[in-house]
Amino acid sequence: MKVHLPVREAILNRRTYEAPAEGRSNKLRLYFNENTSGCSPSVRRALAKLTAKQIAMYPEYQAPTERLARHFGVRPQELLLANGGDDALRVFFDAFVDPRSRILICEPTFPMYRYYAEIYGARIAVTRYTNEMHFPLEAVLLALRKKPRVLFIANPNNPTGTLVQPDAIRKILNAATHTAVVMDEAYAEFSGSTMVPWIRKFPQLFVARTFSKVAGLAALRLGAVIAREDSLSLVRRAMPPFPVNLAALVAADAAVRDRAAMQTYVKNVKRLRASLAMELNGLGVKTYPSAGNFLLADFGSPGPTLFRKLEKQGILLRDRSKDMSPGFVRITIGTRAEMRRLLQAIRKEWKARR
Ligand SMILES: Cc1ncc(COP(=O)(O)O)c(C=O)c1O
Prior knowledge:
Layout: H1 9-12, E1 28-30, H2 41-48, H3 52-56, H4 62-72, E2 79-82, H5 85-96, E3 102-107, H6 112-119, E4 123-128, H7 137-144, E5 150-154, H8 166-175, E6 180-184, H9 188-191, E7 205-210, E8 223-227, H10 229-236, H11 246-257, H12 259-282, E9 286-288, E10 294-298, H13 303-312, E11 315-319, E12 328-332, H14 336-352
Parallel strand pairs: 1-11, 3-4, 3-5, 5-6, 6-7
Antiparallel strand pairs: 2-8, 7-8, 9-10, 10-12, 11-12
Bound molecules: pyridoxal-5'-phosphate.
């Protein structure tokens, strides 16, 4: 039987997203910005208490939303939960983006903004970070004149690790009279800086957060959008009734109660990030100041060969040679032992390079 499936035009010429290879759990995974220490033990205890009846019920959101809103310092009406940070970004396309609408991004950045834009058939306006990884403020202000539907800014940015200063964000918000401004704060806990307190002043400001990184819940998928109640209610109209699973809620609830675990992880990341930068600089490798749980480094032309050799040894880094310059790599900050293993391997290969 010959059938023609009426696939949307925007999907027609796409390839399927290649999810990372399976069987990575025994490798040194420093390419996904995961919390390689794992979640807090209190999360596992809370998950173990879930009953068969609870699991058989559709989830109830009110009580956990109230507690998580308190964690973010907002009212429950100002918080929307989604199935991971990725999903918390998709909701903006459902709410604001028609086919051929314009969205604005600042590259290099987190690839999901472009990914969704392509799926939704949006036009993508791009401004670029400078070679020194400075945020392109003037270009963004100029591009806002064309009234893109949504502007996505990762803050801190992945992979550059850079932060946009509040002054610049204020200028952007003042210029964004017809644009939803999404500050993607997946790494806010490491930078210590958030725009959440600004939501009541700027109705076009949306802050996206995730529990994958600092709380170490990447496998459970929980993300959040924080915005003024009336703005968020527009986004809610595009949401399914049960977007988030109970295990993720229970885990997040336990994670935010164990502040000490998150604080220890953040403290370790900062310390190990500084020492990794110092060691790499000592080898003559350029690094960029980072406000996330990762570090951007430029190994120059020998980089890609080095990354392949490390991969063969089970050390996975995120090679950004293709979308930046050859030799750029993003390295997740792991545990002290993981950083030691990484540095030993880098030193050995780096000395032997030709
Ligand atoms: C900037 C940024 N935003 C959002 C996410 C999404 O994280 P998740 O879907 O695991 O919540 C990531 C993950 O790497 C990220 O780097």
